[in-house]
Amino acid sequence: MKILIKKKLPDISTWIGLAAIVSLIVLFSAMNSSFGKADNISNILTDISPLLLMASGVTFIIVVGSTDLSIGAVCSLSSILFVRYAEHIGLGAYVLIAAAGLISGLVIGILQARFKVPSFIASLGMMSIWESLALVFSNSGTIQLNPKLWYTVDWMSAKISIIPVVFLAALLIVFIYLLIQHSTRIGKYVYAIGANERAAWMAGVPVEKVKIACFGAAGVCYALGGVMFVAKMVSGSPNVGDNYTLLSIAAVALGGTSMAGGRGSVVKTMIGVAVVMIVRNGMTVTGVDSFWQKIVYGMIIIIAAYLTADHTNKEQIIK
Question: Residue 143: what are its φ and ψ, rounded to 5°?
Answer without folding.
Answer: -115, 125
